Amino acid sequence: MSEQGTQQTVVVQQAEGNGLAVSGMVLGIIAVVLNFIPFLPYVLGALAIIFGAVGLQKPVKQGMAKAGIVLGIVSIAMKILFWMFIGSLI
Question: Which of 4, 15, 31, 66 has a Cα-to-Cα distance from 83 of 20 to 30 A?
Answer without folding.
Answer: 66
